[in-house]
Specification:
This protein has one helix at 108-113; strands at residues 8-11, 21-24, 32-37, 45-51, 56-58, 120-123, 127-128, 137-140, 144-146, 156-161, 167-171, 176-179, 188-202, 205-213. By secondary structure, the chain is mostly beta strands. The strands form two sheets. Strands 6, 7, 8, 9, 10, 11, 12, 13 and 14 form a nine-stranded mixed β-sheet that branches. The longest helix has 6 residues, at 108-113.
Length: 214
């Protein structure tokens, strides 16, 4: 077996220099070997560079049947260029504003849930609303108290009177509960099978509206 010791190995014998390639090491060795366009000693550009750490730099487009690895160093990927494939179910969506630099891709299942109230809970005898009621339909047969300093601005929940009698929606201590479209505040009455939505303006102010509300 023979060994070739050379800093330049030209591949190609075309009379047109840019149709040949040269595998070479820079005049001042820097731990790389390079494949350049052009004849030995007069390359015009490097198309592939390999370092002694195994890192590879390609100046053009790298095409492969598959790629393997963690992908941890991949940056500037444009999701609009992903025409096929699926997002693993282990990836979950986070609750961040749309169209910001922090927006995270949501799963199809997550988006589907946004088309309806997130869940329905039942409080047979009514009671006091809790922070876990946000974004839900609360089905009750008794009165509900809406408390202060439990919910935050923009929190929402819906109450359904699942009974044949009126129930009272009670304004909690330190809370201002406003009836939408009126100057009314305070306790409200929800008729049988009535449905209302409570929207918080702040931790101590909410607006209530719906069918069967007086």
């Amino acid at each position: 077996m023979s060994t070739i010791n050379s800093k330049n190995v030209q591949v190609g014998t075309s009379g047109v220099a840019n149709q040949n390639f040269t595998l070479y090491q820079p005049n001042t060795p820097d731990g790389t070997v390079r494949l350049g366009v052009g004849n030995s000693g007069v390359t015009t550009s490097d198309v592939v560079t390999v370092t002694n750490a195994g890192n590879v730099t390609v100046s053009g487009v790298a095409t492969a049947t598959t790629f393997s690895g963690s992908g941890a160093s991949l940056t500037a990927l444009n999701a609009s260029n992903l025409s096929t494939g699926s997002i693993p179910s282990a990836i979950t969506a986070t609750t961040q504003a749309a169209k910001t630099s922090d927006t995270t891709i949501a799963t199809t299942a997550f988006v589907d849930r946004l088309r309806s109230l997130l869940t329905q809970s039942t409080a047979a005898g009514g009671g006091t609303a809790v922070v876990g009621d946000r974004g839900t339909l609360v089905s009750v047969t008794g009165g509900v108290t809406v408390p202060a300093n439990v919910f935050a601005a923009n929190d929402v929940f819906t109450i359904y009177n699942n009974s044949g009698s009126n129930i009272t929606i009670t304004q909690g201590a330190s809370l201002t509960l406003r009836q939408v479209g009126t100057a009314n505040t305070g306790n409200r009455t929800l008729a049988q099978r009535g449905l209302v939505t409570v929207v918080f303006i702040s931790a101590t102010e909410a607006v209530i509206s719906g069918g069967g509300l007086t």
